[in-house]
Amino acid sequence: MVMSAAAAAMALAWIGVLAAGYGWKEAVRLGISASTGLGREGFLRTFAAEPVVRIFEQRGIPQLLDEALILLHAKAAPLKGDKWTSRDTRLFAAGAAGCGYWAAAAGLLIAGLSEEPGIAWAALVCGLLFPLGRFRELQQQALRRKQEMLLALPELIGKLTLLVGAGETVQKALMRCAGGGGGLARTDPLHAELAQALQAITNGQSFSAAMESFSRRCAVQEVSVFTTVLLLNYRRGGDQLSLSLREISLPLWDKRRSTARARGEEASSKLVFPLTGIFFILMVLVGAPAMLMMNG
User: Fold this and answer.
1) Count of CB atoms situated within 10 Å of the CB of 105
2) Residues of 130-164 as b/e, b for ≥16 C-beta within 10 angstroms?
3) Which phi and psi angles does 115 have, rounded to 5°?
4) Tens digits of residue pLDDT in 216-255
5) Which of 212, 224, 80 minimizes the C-alpha distance to 150?
6) Which CATH class is domain 147-266?
7) How far apart are the first and last CA of the chain?
8) Where are the domains positioned within the chain?
C-alpha cells in the first residue's frame, strides 16, 4: 500500500512538472495528443526532457549542475556534430534523468501491487543507474572516437608527407588522403571530418577557416597540433612542410601503439567473464552426472 502510494505521488509530481514546464492548457493538450504518433524519441523529448529544461530556463540552473552540463556538452558536441547545441545537451540529460524517474515509479507501482519490497529497492537502484548508464555510454563513445582518431592520424600524416614530398599540392594531397582523387574512401571519424572540411573548401570556404573548423570538430589535441603545423607551413609547402610533419608524426606513432595495446587489453578483459561463465557451465555439465550417480 505504501509503495503504491509512493508511485502515485511520483506520478502526480511529474504531472506538476509538466504543468510547470508547459502550463496546464498545453500539458492537457499534449496529454490528449500523446497517442498521435510522437514516436519513442518524440515522446521522451516531450514528456521527460522538455518540461524540465523549460523549468530550469525559467528559474536558472544551479552552478554545480551547470558545470556538469558543460563537461557533458564537451563530450557530446564532437559526437553529435555542429548542429548540437548546449540546449540539446540539457535535453539529453533531462531525458536520461526522466527515464530513471519513470523506471523507479513503475517499479514502486509493481512492488505495491505484488507486495514485494525487493522489487521496490531494485526499481530505485535502476532509477539511479539508468541515467548514469546513459552518461557512461556517451563517455565511452567519446573515448572510442578519440582512440579511432589517434589510430588514423599517424597514417594520414605519413601519407600526406609522401604526397607533399613528391610535389603534390597540400590541398590535392589532403583530398587523396581523405579518399578523393581516385583513393579509397575511409570511414573512420578523422577521415570523415577531413572530407567534410575539403567539401567546405570546394564550396568556397577558405583553407584556413575550413581547417580550423576541422580541428574544432575533432576536439583532439593531437589533431589540433597537426592542423596548426599544416596552417603554418601551408604557403611554404615542399621540404619545410614534410620536415614539420615528420617531427610531429614520431610521437604519434608511439601513441598509436599504446592506444592499440590499450584497446587489445580492453577486448581481452571483456572476454574474462564469458569464459568464466562457460567454464562454470562445463563444470556443471561434467560434474552433475557424477554427483547424481554418487547420490543414486
Assistant:
1) 20
2) bbeebbeebeeebeebbbbbbbbbbbbbbebbebb
3) 55, 45
4) 888 889 999 999 988 888 776 667 888 888 888 888 888 8
5) 224
6) mainly alpha
7) 48
8) 2-115, 147-266
pLDDT band at 98 (very low <50, low <70, confident <90, very high): confident
pLDDT in tens, 268-280: 666 666 767 776 7
pTM of the model: 0.73
Instruction: Identify the residue whose cell numbers are 575511409.
Output: 186
Q: What is the helix (H) or strand (E) element at residue 205, kind and residue range?
A: none
Backbone angles phi, psi at 269, to 5 degrees: -70, -30
| Residue carrying the nine cell digits 573515448 | 143
The identity of residue 261, as a single letter, is R
Please name the residue that has the C-alpha cell 579518399.
179
Residue 219 main-chain phi, psi, to 5 deg: 55, 40
What is the Cα Rg of the chain in Å?
A: 27
Distance CA 14, CA 30 (A): 14
